[in-house]
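Format notes (please read before filing issues)

Several people have asked whether sequences and structure tokens are stored in separate files. They are not. Every record keeps both together, in the order shown below: the sequence lines, then the token lines. Line labels are part of the format and must not be stripped during preprocessing.
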Amino acid sequence: MSKLNLKPEERIILALDFPEFKEAKSWVERLKGRVKTFKVGPILFLNSGPTVLKEFIENGAEIFLDFKFHDIPSTVEKSCRQVVWYGIKMFTIHSLGGLEMMKKSVEAVNFQSEKLSKPKPLVLAVTILTSQSEESLKQIGINGSSQNAVLRLATLAEKAGVDGLVASGREVEVLRKEFGDRFTLVVPGIRTGTNIDDHSRAVTPAEAISLGVDYVVIGRVITEAINPEAVLDEIVLSISQSN
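Then the structure lines:
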């Protein structure tokens, strides 16, 4: 199970997958009293640049930077050093970049955080995207079950010293069984009811938390709702009941 002592509302990361800064900012201002951490990915960042990180952090938000760095080790190492400057809470690299790339990422963050006297962000290794099915994995040469692929990648991430993993809720139980509380676990692709959109291995918030997840990333379920605050309250309640 999770080693983090978090309140139900602290487990929610709101995905700001908007193409314009103005809309994303309105959600931060609207929900920052209810949500602590917000996800910034390439959609928003390519529109607004680093300004979005600085402004949101100054506005009291914590940032999950979801770029999934995946390149040669030296390039990712330099990218990770840049990340430390902004004072974000956590960010993603991709485990498919391999052991050396992940090691360099962790080393870069540790070095730069100490050099700049800044808090060290959590380095999260993405395993298999929640949109991937076993059939689509076969198409790119990954045979066997998605669960086995996630476990192999998690083993590499552990050797590299990575802080946490991003995985489907379907793999959380086996990850906790194999690694205990070694990793901070973040689960995207969170859906409610039968609405799973393009996530083929989706789970509900309550299911994810009951399995031992630390954080759930939720976007459209809240931001496309008629009454986002009511939906958020329902999710928080379901999480509190599943702890």
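For reference, the curators noted about this record: The two ends are 10 Å apart (CA to CA). The chain has eleven helices and eight strands.
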